[in-house]
Write a structure and sequence with these properties.
Blueprint lengths: L1 H25 L2 E2 H8 L3 H13 L3 E4 L12 E4 L5 E7 L3 E8 L4 E8 L4 H19 L6 E8 L2 E2 L6 E2 L11 H9 L3 E5 H12 L8 E6 L3 E7 L2 E2 L25 H12 L12 H9 L3 H25 L3 E5 H4 L5 H11 L6 E4 L6 H26 L1
Parallel strand pairs: 4-7, 7-10, 11-14, 14-15
Antiparallel strand pairs: 1-3, 2-3, 4-5, 5-6, 8-9, 11-12, 12-13
């Protein structure tokens, strides 16, 4: 008896999911348009729309003025049906954004990271309350928070390992975040989220297979295959620090390493560069024609290409996206492309700089949060109906 009841409930939920996705991607849209787009009968479309209207997931709206409407009623997804919180919980700063179901950021804030992880999470709680006040939306609409961490996050149980920030390995870390934001929390590696941000709103839109390489204070990579994140068995796919093991030459492309390299070159040559040889000044000097800075850029490109090489050679990807305070500098593109073309037997991947900049992790967190929020909505609907 239970099984017989569950089957119609599941079919109903599948129809609702299909129609809601069609409304979200194509709205404003009429019932007739939805029936044509989804292949679902018009009576079923009408029934589903009535249910989605009652639940506040869609709303009636004006027709598209560019198309004939013949008196038809048009529908669009209600972006304020739920809210999601995206968090980039970095070692130097915590970036937070409150987003609606359309993925639009309704409020955002950045604070400097200070103190222990517990103190930073307490500061996040205050930030969350501030964002909700700024948005002027009902706090009860907060459906999900997605937190990007500079650490390996297990895809099996969400446990955290190899953190760049002491204290992130606490066994109750998720519970601490959930208490702070008063919503269910998903923990994810920050570079994985940056890749999702690129896939949703960046240069990787429409690309099923690509890698995202973040080079800044630290180094990490994420790989997307067949449109989905490839996390690996332990969630450690893309942990490129291991590439340096067993080598005697210096191949670290991160900010501190290239600053040290710049200091070594500047010791015996004429240059406008001066301590502490920060990343921004290095690349600005290279653009101005400073010889030492230009050599630093070439060496940085060489080191990044050495890390891209095993990914490109193994996976034969069409695209590699660079981000981070070091990787996002366009001056690196030509020398990286040149080296990969020389080193690879097959055609080199297209290498591009992320257009999202420091917002990539937040963009990915918002995208993951919206997907998770919608999944929870449908899970609840199936449980209620079965």
């Amino acid at each position: 008896m239970t099984e017989t009841k569950a089957v119609p409930a599941l079919l109903r939920a599948l129809n609702e999911r299909t129609i809601l996705e069609a409304v979200r991607s194509s709205g404003p849209v009429s019932r007739a348009d939805l029936a044509r787009r989804t292949g679902i009968s018009r009576p079923t479309v009408s029934l589903v729309l009535r249910t989605l209207l009652e639940d506040g997931l869609v709303r009636e709206t004006a027709h598209d003025p560019g198309r004939p409407h013949y008196g038809a009623v048009y529908y669009e997804a209600d972006p304020e049906a739920s809210l999601v919180l995206g968090v980039d919980f970095g070692s130097r700063s915590v970036r937070t954004a409150l987003c609606d179901l359309a993925g639009e950021m309704r409020a955002r804030e950045e604070i400097r990271s200070r103190g222990s992880v517990e103190e930073r999470i307490a500061a996040l709680a205050s930030t969350c309350r501030s964002l909700l006040r700024t948005s002027k939306l009902d706090p009860d609409l907060l459906e999900r928070a997605v937190v990007g961490l500079p650490a390996v996050v297990s895809p099996a149980d969400g446990s955290v390992s190899s953190p760049d920030l002491a204290g992130l390995g606490a066994s109750d870390l998720r519970e601490q975040f959930e208490y702070a934001v008063q919503a269910p929390v998903t923990l994810e590696n920050d570079v994985n989220l940056a890749a999702l941000g690129e896939q949703r709103n960046g240069v990787a839109q429409g690309v099923d297979d690509f890698a995202f390489l973040l080079v800044g204070a630290g180094l990490g990579a994420a790989v997307v295959l067949d449109g989905k994140l490839h996390r690996g068995r332990n969630g450690a796919a893309g942990e490129l620090d291991a590439v340096r093991n067993g080598r005697t030459d210096e191949v670290d492309p991160c900010a501190a390493a290239i600053s040290q390299y710049a200091a070594e070159l500047a010791g015996g040559r004429k240059t406008a560069l001066a301590p502490p040889f920060e990343t921004r000044e290095l690349f600005a000097a290279a653009r101005s024609g400073d010889g030492v800075a230009a050599d630093v850029v070439e060496e940085t490109a060489h080191r990044i290409a050495l890390h891209v090489l095993p990914i490109a050679a193994t996976l034969d990807l069409p695209l590699v996206v660079l981000g981070g305070s070091v990787g996002a500098n366009p001056e690196l593109l030509e020398p990286i492309r040149r080296r990969l073309t020389d080193w690879l037997l097959s055609p080199a991947p297209r290498v591009e700089v992320s257009p999202l900049g420091e917002a990539a992790v937040l963009e990915g967190a918002a995208a993951a949060g919206v997907d998770a929020a919608l999944e929870r909505v449908f899970e609840r609907r199936v449980r209620r109906a079965s």
